[in-house]
């Protein structure tokens, strides 16, 4: 029965051979919840889409970030349409753990139709956590 997974099934020799020269472009996303999931990939990734909401715990998430740093794996984030409190969480995490890699978790303004609007902070953004709660402070509140 064919796999319904959206990750490449590299256990199929023909698929593995066809993608072998493109491994540096393959990143992992959906199957990653813990470091064990990263280690279970058929080869070490060059980059990994870290989704905090998929990690089982805060410790699991920090273990993934530590593992990526130790192994030289680029981390990037976003892609789950985080809203409200979750958006603030993932923006702060991105500004701390992977401010120099592509993310789709930019603060308001970066998504304007007429881009670029004036007055936006330059990337990478400073973490600037809010004094209360777990999110990145908007520029106007600092």
Structure write-up:
The protein has 142 residues and is mainly alpha-helical. It has a single domain, classed as Enolase-like C-terminal domain (TIM Barrel, Alpha-Beta Barrel), CATH 3.20.20. Helix content is 28%, strand content 6%. The chain contains four helices and two strands, in the order ααβαβα. It has helices at residues 13-19, 35-39, 58-71, 84-97, and strands spanning 47-50, 74-77. Strands 1-2 form a two-stranded parallel ribbon. Helix 3 links the parallel strand 1 (47-50) and strand 2 (74-77). The longest helix has 14 residues, at 58-71. The model has no long low-confidence stretch (mean pLDDT 81).
Largest sheet: 2 strands, parallel
CATH homologous superfamily placement: Enolase-like C-terminal domain
Strand share of the residues?
5-15%
Describe the global form: globular
In whole angstroms, the N-to-C terminal distance is: 55 Å
Question: Residue share in helices?
Answer: 25-40%
Which secondary-structure class do the elements indicate? mainly alpha
CATH topology: TIM Barrel
Give the number of DSSP strands. Answer: 2
Radius of gyration: 17 Å
Number of structurally distinct domains = 1
> Secondary-structure element sequence?
HHEHEH
* CATH architecture level-2 label: Alpha-Beta Barrel
Number of helices: 4
């Amino acid at each position: 029965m064919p796999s319904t997974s959206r990750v490449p099934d590299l256990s199929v020799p023909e698929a593995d051979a066809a993608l072998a020269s493109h491994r540096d472009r393959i990143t992992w996303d959906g199957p990653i919840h813990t470091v064990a999931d990263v280690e279970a990939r058929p080869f070490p990734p060059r980059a990994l889409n870290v989704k905090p909401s998929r990690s089982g715990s805060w410790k699991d998430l920090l273990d993934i970030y530590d593992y990526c740093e130790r192994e030289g794996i680029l981390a990037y984030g976003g892609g789950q349409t985080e809203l409200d409190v979750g958006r603030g969480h993932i923006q702060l995490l991105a500004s701390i753990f992977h401010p120099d890699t592509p993310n789709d978790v930019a603060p308001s303004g970066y998504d304007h139709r007429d881009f670029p609007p004036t007055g936006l902070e330059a990337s990478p953004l400073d973490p600037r956590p809010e004094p209360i709660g777990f999110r990145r402070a908007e520029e106007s509140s600092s």
